[in-house]
Amino acid sequence: MALEASASQASDSIHANVLSQARLACYKARDAFYACLEKESNKKPTEIAYVGLLYPVECKKNREAYVKQCRPTWVKHFDRQYCAKKRVQRLLDDNESRRGV
Mind listing the UniProt keywords for this protein, alphabetically (predicted)? Predict the structure, then answer.
């Protein structure tokens, strides 16, 4: 009995480490892709991602790495978050220009 419990705990810690490393790899790939989007924001977006996110061809390699490293549901979630954040920022920027201060 004790041997089985010990083996189960060791197995759980291994899975936790693997999941943690995969999550960190996903976050790193995501951050690289969104950094590329910000850096190349002046270029015309020609590629289409989930939820209508458009990005320039210069970020295609970063996008491929991001999609490869992350679960599809995570990619959709992060893309939605990014689009929502950009939408709010655009609205705030429009309000600032309309104030006439």
Answer: Disulfide bond, Mitochondrion
CA distance 29 to 81: 16
pTM value is 0.74
> Residues 27, 21: contact at Cβ < 8 Å?
no
pLDDT in tens, the chain (101 residues): 455 555 555 555 667 777 889 999 999 999 999 999 999 888 888 888 877 788 899 999 999 999 999 999 999 999 999 999 988 988 888 766 665 55
C-alpha 41/C-alpha 57 separation (Å) is: 11
User: CA 44 to CA 88: how far, in whole Å?
Assistant: 21
